[in-house]
Structure formats: structure tokens, C-alpha cells
Amino acid sequence: MFIGHYAVGLAAKKFAPRSSLGALVAAPILLDLLWPIFLLLGWEHVSIAPNSNPFLRLQFDSYPISHGLVAVVGWATLYASVYFGLTRYLAGTIVIWIGVISHWLLDLIVHRPDLQLYATSRLYGLGLWNHRWLTIALETALFAIAIWTYQRQTHARDKIGLYGFLAFVLFLLIAYAGAAFGPAPPPSIKKIALVTLLGWLMIPWAWWFDVHREVQ
Ligand SMILES: [Zn+2]
């Protein structure tokens, strides 16, 4: 799942209005920010499997450190603890913990059985990715609800607050269109990892326009 994870971060602002959107967005995308690091380190493995359905072009051979549920609970608790230590904001802490966990649950809906509880457990996945249009419909709906929620919760104080936010949404939609309709299978694992690492930039971007908006 892709923009569905960002949807969780945007909608989270309603439940933790004092949290920076950067911190809130980081939670649901955290596992996919760690995953490329573990790929580059050789700790987790993915292979490229040409397929006419772009959602099925990656075969997740092993990723228990970034996407095993036991590890995910650990990442959620670690991030939430650090956040609480820095901010003492309980609502934000809870929302961040749930946000990290939500990644696994949303991935469970779309992935084919490749998600684990721990490194030697059986594999889980409901496989919505097999149904390309249903996946697109679900993610787009989640994203639309989240945008609506966030823009109702906050309003722009200046042009950065407005256009920074619109550009963020547009960028994600274009990137998602590339992922959902892209013609060619990804060229190499290393490239996939490096492109995925760019996701880290979405955190300061979200923080940036969010400070130019105020909660109403
Ligand atoms: Zn993931």
C-alpha cells in the first residue's frame, strides 16, 4: 500500500491536533522507510517478478525486521516512546503508536501472503493487489477522506500553508499513478531501495507546510 499509509498520517491530525504533521506522517510510513535500509544492508530480501499488474512486480521474499508484526509493535513502541519523551503529548503518542501498527494492517489487506508475525511464522496477506482497480479505489478513497479531514482540521495561514500542502498531495498522486500504471518493471533492487529512501523527505515536507497552517 502507498497513499493509503499517507492517508492515516493526514487524518491523524484530527486526533492529535498539537502534533506536527511531520511526526504524524512518519508513523504510518515508518516501516517503508526502514525497509530500504535493511534491503541495502542485505538483512531483508525482495526480488523483481515481471507481471502485467504493476502491484505484483515485487516479490517480498523476507522482511521480518521491517514488516514482521512482532518487530512492528517494537518499532511503534520505540517511536511512540521517543515522541512522548520529547513532547509529553499523550494524544500524539497514542496516535503515533496506532499509526505505525496501521501500516501492517493495511499491508495485510493488499499484500499476497508474504507478511509474517516473526521470522519463522507462517505468511499472511489477503491479496487485494490481485484486483488492481479495487486496490486503487480503496487507496484513493482513504486518501480523499484524509485530505478532507486534514483540510477541515487546519487552515492555511499563508501561501506555503496552502500551496505546500497542495503540492504534497499532487506529488503523492503522481507518484502513486506511476506505481499503479507504470509500464516497466523496476530496474534493480538497489534502485528500488534508493528511490524508496526518498520517502524520508516527505517528513520535513509535511512538517513545513503544517507549521504554515493552524488548527481551527
Ligand atoms: Zn509496507
Describe, in plain words, how this protein is organized in 3D:
The protein is mainly alpha-helical and 216 residues long. 64% of the residues lie in helices and 9% in strands. The protein is built from 9 helices and 6 strands. It has a two-stranded antiparallel ribbon. A two-stranded antiparallel ribbon has the order 3-4. Strands 5-6 form a two-stranded antiparallel ribbon. Helix 2 runs antiparallel to helix 9 and helix 7 (159-181) packs antiparallel against helix 9 (202-211). The longest helix has 23 residues, at 159-181. The structure holds zinc ion.
Short description, anyone?
The protein has helices at residues 3-12, 21-41, 64-67, 69-87, 90-110, 132-153, 159-181, 189-197, 202-211, and strands at 45-48, 58-62, 115-116, 123-124, 154-156, 213-215. It is mainly alpha-helical and 216 residues long.
